[in-house]
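U., I forgot to send this yesterday:
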Amino acid sequence: MLKPVHNGYALTENYVYKDIAVPKGYVTDGISYKFRFVGILINKYDHRYIKAAIVHDWLTDLGDWDKANQYFEELLPETLTAKVMVKAVKIYKKVKGY
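Result:
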């Protein structure tokens, strides 16, 4: 589904989730985080989180933050790490005013 490129990973095929289609070739930077130490705890391209990251990145690139955050939460597994990521995204959105 993904192949490495110079600035992240690119989709090798279209990815469809509900009413959105992320096109083949779209590049994601994986799970984004603002604090370096988080990288010790989370692999940016962890298979458990990457589909949520792809959909979230695509929708935020389109400016649809509400749907991006909703789908991000839906696609993540029920883990403590995922719950922390959802909370962080909500805080980031509020701070940035999206």
